[in-house]
Write a structure and sequence with these properties.
The chain is α+β, with helices and mostly antiparallel strands. It has helices at about 1-10, 15-25, 35-60, 110-125, 135-165, 170-200, 210-225, 370-385; strands at about 65-75, 85-90, 95, 100-105, 230, 235-240, 250, 255-270, 285-290, 295-305, 315, 315-320, 330-340, 355-360.
Length: about 375
C-alpha cells in the first residue's frame, strides 16, 4: 500500500515540475555590459584632433595675437643752443601744431653775439665805400629763409614717407611739395638780395678775407639767436614736461618728450611659425582695448627682419645660453600694422602704449578660416568691455 501511495505520489507530479528539473542544469548566458566612458573618450580624442588641426590652420592662414601695442614716433626735444630757460610755453600733455613755441632760452647772450658780429663786419668794411646796414639786413634775411627751408624740408620728408605708405592723402603730399617750393623761392630771393649787397663791395677778388670771415660770423650768430626759441616739429602732443623757468638746458640734452600725432601704427609680436604666409599689404583687423566693441581695418606695413635674442659675448666669443626649460619658448617677431586710411580713422582716445589684439588674414578674407577668425575676434571685441 505504501508503494502504491509512493507511486501514486510520484505519478501525480505536475508536468511543470518535470520540466523545471532539467532547467536547473542549463548554464545562464549574460549579455556583456557596454562601457559608457568609451564613446566619451573617443569623442574627446577626436575633438582634440580637430582643435589641433583648427589651431594649426588659424596660425597659418589667419594668425592672431593679443600681444600688440600702439606705437608712434616719439622724439626727445632738445635745444640746439645752451642757456637758461626763461619761459615754458606749453603745459604737460598739450596738443601743439607745427611751429608752435615750446620753450625759450635766454636770448641776451646771443643778441650780444650778433651785435659783436655786426661790429666786426663794420670794422672790416671801414676800408670800403659802402655801408654795412644793407649787408647785415640781407644776411639776416638769408638766415631766416634758410632756417625756414630746413624746417619745411624736414616736415616734407616725413609727409612724403607717409604718402608712400598710404597713411596720408595725396593732397597732403602735394601741399608739402608746394610748401617746399615756396620756401626755396624765399631763400633764392634772400640770397639774391645778399648778392646785390655784396656786389656793392666790388669784385670778389677785391673783397677782403676779413669781410668774408665777419660775414660768416654774423650768419652763425644770427642762426644761434633764431634757435633760442624751440618750436614743435610737427602736429603732436608734448608729454612728460618737467622743464621749468630758471633751469639751465644744455645743447642737445632732452628737455621734453614729443609724440608725433600725424603718424601712429600698431606693433604686434607673432611667433615665427605664424609668419609662414604673412607678407606686406596683407589685410588685418585690429581691436583696441581702449575702444571695446569696435574692429578696425588695417594692413601689414612690414615684418621686422630681426630681433635681439639676448646672446652675450665674452672674450670675443658667443656665450651659450643655459637650458633651464624643457621646451624653449617660441621667438616672436614684430609686425607693423597700419590702419587703412591712416590717421583719418585713428581713434582719438587710443593712447601710445595701449594694448591691441590683431588678426592678419594671410590667405585673404574670403575663406572659412578667415570667417572663423573674424567671428572669434568680434566676440573678443565685445568681451573687452569686461576685461
Amino acid at each position: 500500500m505504501a508503494e502504491a501511495m509512493g507511486k501514486t505520489t510520484h505519478e501525480g507530479d505536475s508536468p511543470q515540475a518535470k520540466d523545471a528539473e532539467p532547467a536547473l542544469d542549463k548554464p545562464r548566458t549574460e549579455k556583456p555590459t557596454r562601457n559608457p566612458a568609451k564613446p566619451i573618450a573617443i569623442g574627446a580624442v577626436l575633438l582634440m584632433i580637430l582643435l589641433a588641426i583648427g589651431y594649426a590652420l588659424l596660425d597659418r592662414l589667419a594668425p592672431s595675437t593679443d600681444r600688440g601695442v600702439v606705437s608712434a614716433s616719439v622724439v626727445q626735444i632738445a635745444p640746439r643752443v645752451a642757456g637758461e630757460v626763461v619761459k615754458v610755453h606749453v603745459n604737460d600733455d598739450a596738443v601743439v601744431q607745427a611751429g608752435d613755441p615750446l620753450f625759450s632760452i635766454d636770448p641776451r647772450p646771443f643778441e650780444l653775439a650778433v651785435r659783436r658780429a655786426e661790429a666786426s663786419l663794420n670794422g672790416a668794411l671801414q676800408g670800403q665805400d659802402v655801408s654795412s646796414a644793407s649787408l647785415v639786413a640781407a644776411q639776416a634775411q638769408v638766415t631766416r629763409a634758410r632756417a625756414a627751408l630746413d624746417k619745411v624740408n624736414a616736415d616734407a620728408d616725413r609727409m612724403f614717407r607717409l604718402e608712400e605708405r598710404g597713411v596720408v592723402a595725396v593732397a597732403e603730399g602735394d601741399a608739402a611739395r608746394a610748401a617746399v617750393n615756396d620756401a626755396q623761392a624765399q631763400l633764392e630771393i634772400a640770397e639774391a638780395n645778399l648778392e646785390s649787397a655784396r656786389v656793392a663791395l666790388g669784385p670778389d677778388d677785391q673783397i677782403s678775407p676779413d669781410i668774408v670771415a665777419a660775414q660768416a660770423q654774423l650768419e652763425s650768430a644770427q642762426y644761434d639767436l633764431s634757435s633760442t626759441t624751440v618750436v614743435a616739429p610737427h602736429f603732436g602732443v608734448v608729454t612728460n614736461v618737467t622743464l621749468g623757468s630758471g633751469q639751465f638746458s644744455n645743447a642737445g640734452s632732452p628737455a621734453m618728450t614729443f609724440i608725433d600725432a600725424g603718424a601712429a601704427w600698431v606693433t604686434v609680436d607673432l611667433r615665427e611659425n605664424q609668419l609662414v604666409n604673412v607678407e606686406a599689404d596683407d589685410p588685418a583687423h585690429v581691436v583696441f582695448d581702449a575702444l571695446p566693441g569696435h574692429v578696425f581695418n588695417g594692413r601689414v606695413q612690414s615684418v621686422a627682419w630681426g630681433i635681439d635674442p639676448g646672446r652675450s659675448v665674452q672674450g670675443g666669443l658667443i656665450v651659450n645660453q643655459p637650458a633651464t626649460r624643457w621646451f624653449e619658448p617660441a621667438r616672436r617677431i614684430p609686425v607693423r600694422i597700419e590702419l587703412v586710411n591712416g590717421m583719418d580713422v585713428w581713434p582719438s582716445n587710443v593712447r601710445i602704449g595701449g594694448k591691441v589684439h590683431a588678426t592678419v588674414f594671410a590667405n585673404g578674407t574670403g575663406n572659412p578660416i578667415a570667417w572663423l577668425a573674424r567671428s572669434v575676434q568680434r566676440a573678443r571685441a565685445w568681451l573687452s568691455y569686461l576685461y
